[in-house]
Task: structure prediction
Amino acid sequence: MATQHSRSAARLMMAPAVTLLLGWMLVPLVMTLFFSFRTYLPLRPEVAQTWVGFDNYVRFVTSSSFWPAVVATLIIVGGVLLITLILGVILALLLDQPMWGQGAVRVLVIAPFFVMPTVSALLWKNMFMDPVNGFFAHILRALGLAPIEFLSQHSLTSIIVIVSWEWLPFATLILLTAIQSLDQEQLEAAEMDGASWPSRFIYIILPHLSRAMTVVLLIQTIFLLGIFAEIFVTTQGSFGSKTLTYLIYQRVLESQNVGLGSAGGVYAIILANIVAMFLMRIVGKNLDA
Amino acid sequence: MGQISLSNVAKRFGEVEVIPPLDLQINDGEFVVFVGPSGCGKSTLLRLIAGLEDVSSGEIVIDGTNATEMPPAKRRLAMVFQSYALYPHMSVRNNIAFPLRMAKLDKAEQDRRVSDAARVLNLTDYLDRRPGQLSGGQRQRVAIGRAIVREPAAFLFDEPLSNLDAALRVGMRLEISELHKRLKTTMIYVTHDQVEAMTMADKIVVLRAGVIEQVGSPLELYRTPRNLFVAGFIGSPKMNFLKGDEAKKHGADTIGIRPEHIVLSQEKGDWKGTVGVSEHLGSDTFFHVNSDLFDEPVTVRADGEVDLHYGAEIYLSPNTAHLHKFDAKGLRIS
Result:
C-alpha cells in the first residue's frame, strides 16, 4: 500500500514538470506540423492562408538548394566528428602523461568549450581568418605569400575548423576520463606479452576507448546537425556553406515563407530521429559487451 | 633454462630507497616465493625482475645475459598479475593467443599452442567466451594460460590468488604447484600469505622493508629462523616469544616456542596459567593461555579432542629441543 501511495504521490508531484516539458516540446512541434501544411506568408497579406497539402514538402525537397544543403551538412558533421575524435584521442593520450602544471593545462584545454558559439565564431572570423587583419594573414604575409580569404575561398573547411575547435575539448574530456579508467596492469601485461606501443594502442587502448568514442559520436552528431551560430556569424550561408538548418532559417525569416520552412523543419526532425535511432543502437550494442 | 641472478640491485623512488642493494640467486626450475608483510617491497622486486620498473643500480642477469637494460618483452619472462589483467574485449582464445600474435607466430602454431594450454588448464570449453563471463578461478587460469603459451624462461606471479575466495585459493595453489612439477620451469611467486609460501616454495625469500631477512627452504625457515622477524612471520599460528626471566634461564634475551611445541597438562608443568580464548578447528584446538609469567597470552596447540573451558588452570611445558633463542639484537643464538 505504502509503495502505491508514494508512487501516486510521486506522479502528482512530477506532473507540473512533465506537463511543462511536454508543452514546451509539443506546442512548437504541433505548430510546425500545422504550418507545414499551409501557405503562410506574413509579409504578403494579399496571399490567403490556405491548406496546401504536401505542396510545401515537395517544394522544399525539389528546390535547387536542398541537396547542396544536405551535402554541406554531412560534410560539416563528418568533418568535425573525424577531427574531434582523432585529435581528441591524441590529446587525451598526451594529457594523461604526468607533467608539470597538469591541472592548469587541462583547464586550458577545456576552456574553448565554455566560449559561446557566436563568440568563438566571431573570434575566429576577425582574429584569425580575416584576410586583412587576421593572424593567419599576418603569418602568410610575413612568409611572402598572399593572404587567403578563408571564409569565402574555403568556407566549409573554415567552418569545420571553427566548430572542431569548439567541440574538441568535449571529446578530449570524455576520452581522457576513459583513458584514466584503463587498468594499468593490462598495459603492463601487454608489454610483457611483447606488444610494442602501436600494438598496445590498437589492441588495448582503442578497444577500451570504443565506448567513450561512441558516446562522443552520438552526442556530437545530435548537436552538430543543428549548428547555426557559426554559419550565421561567418558566411551567412553563402559560398556553399548552407546547411539544412540554415536553409530552414532562410526560408522562414529571409523569404518569410513560414509554411515552406516548417516543412523543412519536419524533415530535419525526421533526419535527427533516424540518426539518433542508429546511434542508440550502436551505443546499446556497445553497452552490452 | 631460467636462471636469474640479482647482484647489488637497488631501487629508489626519488629520495626514498624502497630496496637497498641486495643479491639473490634463483636457480633453474626453482619455485621461489617472495614473502613479507605488505609494503615490504616484494612486488617491486618482482617488477624489477620483470623489467616493468627500472633498477636504480645493480645488475639483473637472466640465463647468463645481462638483462638490466632489456625491455620486459625481451627478457623471456611471463607474468601473472594480481588483477589477472585479461583483455576484456577479447575472447579467451585471443587472450591466450595475444603474446603469440605479437611474436608473429604462424596461425597453425598459434592454434596448436592455445589448444594445448587450454587442455592443460581445463579451459577448452571456454575458449570463445569473454573474460567477463568467467568466474574468478577461470580468469586466473586464462591469465596462466597466456603466460604458458610463450614458453618463457620463468614465470612471475604477483599475488595471483589474493582475489579468490578461500576454497578456490587452496585449489589454485595445488594447480600451480602441479603445473610447476610438470613444466619444471622457474617460477617466482609473490605473496603476503605465509601458508602459500610454505606449501608451494622450494625456496622462500623473506623480505622486510626491502631487505632480505632470510633465504631458505620452507623447513629451514621453520626450524632455524635467522631472527625474530622470520621466526614470527613463518608458521601459523605464529611463534610465542618470551622475554625476561624465562628467557634468561636459557641464556637468551628472547626465547621463542611454537604453539605445536608446547605440551599441555592439567597436573604439572613448567609454566602455570589459565585458559583464555580457545579456537576449535576440529583437528586441532588452539588455546590462548594467560599467566603472570608472560607479557602476552601464549598460544598452545592441543588435540581437537581436548576440552578446556575459559579460566581453567593448566600447566605448559615447552619442548626444549624446539626452543629458539635470540640475542638482544633479535638474532638467533645457535
In short: Residues 4-232 of chain B form a domain with the Rossmann fold fold (CATH 3.40.50.300). The longest strand of chain B covers residues 16-26.
